[in-house]
Amino acid sequence: MPLSANDITRKSWLNVPKDSDFPIQNIPFGVFITKDDVVTIGTRIGDYAIDLGALQQLNYFEGIELTDDMFMQDTLNDFISDGKKTWRAVRNRIAEIFDENNTTLRDNEKHRETVIFHITDVEMQLPVLIGDYTDFYSSKEHATNVGKMFRDPENALLPNWLHLPVGYHGRSSTIVPSGIPVHRPMGQTLPNGETQPVFGPSRLVDFELEMAFITTDANIMGECVPVEEAEEHIFGLVLFNDWSARDIQKWEYVPLGPFLAKNFASSMSPWIVTLDALEPFRVEGPAQDPKPLEYLQQQGAHSFDINLQVAIQPEDAEETVISNSNFKYMYWSMAQQLAHHTINGCRVNSGDLMGSGTISGPTPDSFGSMLELTWGGKNPITLKDGTERKFINDGDSVIMRGYCQNDEIRIGFGEVCSKLLPPVSKK
User: Fold this and answer.
1) pTM
2) 142 given a catalytic annotation
3) How confident is the model at residue 425 (pLDDT cuts 50, 70, 90)?
4) Per the residue annotation, which of 142, 233, 302, 341 is the catalytic one?
C-alpha cells in the first residue's frame, strides 16, 4: 500500500503553525478526554486534536475494514493489533480528509464541531494499556560513561555489551503520561563510608533521556521475530523519561540489576509517532564492532535522526536547556532489540513498551542523565535562575522534546513534562 500520508507537498485546511511538530504529514495517534468528558482515540494536526471515534461514527473511514468501535475505546491496543496495513490505510485516509483540496469535512460545520477540538480543550491520556515494559541499555556512550564512573575506566563496558542489547524487565504500573507529577521515592541507601544501610528519601533522583517503541502482537510463545521482520511489528515511538534514584540503585543493583530505583515512575509523551511518519529520517546507526551474531545482523538504515532536548524548570522560574542529543547515537537498533528480546521465544503483545535506555551522545552537552552531565554530582549545573543542580530537586519539572527535520518537513513528538514532588506522606 502506498504511503500517501507522507506526501511533502500536501497542505491541510486546518491552520498549522510554522515549525509545528504536527503537520499533516505526521498524523500521530493518542487517547484523550474531550470537553464533554468523552474518552476517544484521536490524532493531532497543528494545534487541533481530531476525534477519530467521531470520524468513524460519521463514516469517514468507509471502505477500511475496522471493527465498529475501533476508535471508540480508551486504548489503542486493538488498533495496533490490526497491523501495519490498517495503520497505513487509516493514516492515508486522515491525510485525505484534512487535505486542503478536500471540502467534505471542511465545509460541514456540524461535523467539524463534533470532530475537531483545540488541543487546550482536551486532556491527554496514556495511549496504550501497557502489559509489559522492557528497558534496554543501548547507548554505547552512556554505558561507557557509567562504566568509567563506577568500574575500571580502561574496561568501562562489560564483556557482553558489544555482543547483545542488554536489557531488563521493568514495571508498567507506574508509567504515566506527560503532565502527571511523580514523587521522590523512599528506599534503602548506603551512605559513603558506612557499612550499614539507612532508610529514607532518595537524595539522587535523576532523569534518563530515552525513547520507547510500542509493539503490535509480534509472535506466539516459542517463536522468535527475525531481525529483518522486526520493524513490521513496531507501531511507533514516544519520548520517555525513565526516572531513576541513583543512590538506591547503587545499593541494590548487585546481583540482579535495577529494582526500586527504577520502578517508582516513568513518564511518556502522549502522542505515538508511527514508524511510517519517520521514514524520511532513516539513517544508519553506528558501526558495530565486533560483528554481531547472525540473528542480530542487519543491513541498511535502521536508526532515525531524531533531535532530542532536555530542560529543567524550577518552580516559578525559567527553564534551562541542559542537554541536546539524538536518537541516531543508539548502538543497538530497535529491530535488534526486538529480535534479541524474542530469540528465546518470549511473547511480545500489542501495547508492550520497549525503552531504548539512556541516550547519550559523544560530547558532554549531549549526555542523557544528570549522572553524566554533572559526573556523579562533581560538576553541578547552573540554571538560569542562578541555582545549581547536581540532581533533580523537589519542585523541578523535567521537560524532554524531540523532533526530526530536513529541508522539506518537520515531524515531532511534542514533549514529555513531569514535576518531581516530595515523597508521599501517609497521614
Assistant:
1) 0.97
2) yes
3) confident
4) 142
